[in-house]
Amino acid sequence: MQMLKQYILNGWPDKHHIVPELKQYWSLADVLTYEDGLLMKGERIVIPRALRKEVETKLHAAHLGYDAMMRRARDAVFWPGIAARIREIANACQPCQQSKPANQKESLIQHNEGLNPWDKTGIDLFKIFDQQYLAIVDYYSNFIEVEHLHTTTSQVVIRKLKNLFARYGVPKVCISDFGPQFSSAEFTAFMKAWGVHHLKSSPGHHQSNGKAEAAVKILKNLMKK
């Protein structure tokens, strides 16, 4: 990467004189920069070969499949062939394959994916091994968080959401089902006080909260392993 840095700072030689391992960067010469000690392609950090395995592990940690991994990569990191490598990882991972969205048409409520991370979230409660949990998923990135609940009252759910909002930011939109925890006056007041537009999935059309339900499925699969 030191040689690549020299090319960026001092100018690129004729393609025939580039060291073989850097020829794959030739077509990117106009968009590569060196800023604050980092090699950049636009807003993305160019990852050296020695660190790629670590980055792959972080991208793959949530087992959300190719599309979600690529969305995260496009926001932050780059190396030649990254898309093919991510597809290879996702295709070899059973949880990633299980997280592929079903080809179902959503009914009544249609959702875009949010313009930015954490703009829009979906939440759901689930039970496994006699323990209760709250799942929250980011519509933009498919990033999932889970919180253990000692009880499923609105008060406890609100406290967990406050912690999550403090950690990741307050979403503009939060989608849930019509469960009593999410339909109570206390929860409605919480959403209003925090400036969150609370949408409830259409009765009888569970696909409209499909992101959260898919997140629950992924979490249950992981917890059973």
Automatic annotation (TrEMBL):
* Molecular function GO terms recorded: nucleic acid binding
Give the UniProt record's GO annotations in the biological process aspect: DNA integration
Residues covered by the Integrase catalytic domain: 113-225
Instruction: Check the record and name the InterPro entries matching this protein.
Output: Integrase_cat-core, Integrase_H2C2, Retrovirus_Pol_polyprotein, RNaseH-like_sf, RNaseH_sf
The domain of life for this entry's organism is Eukaryota
Protein's name in the database: Uncharacterized protein K02A2.6-like
Organism of this sequence: Biomphalaria glabrata (Bloodfluke planorb)
Q: Tell me the classification of the organism that encodes this protein.
A: Eukaryota, Metazoa, Spiralia, Lophotrochozoa, Mollusca
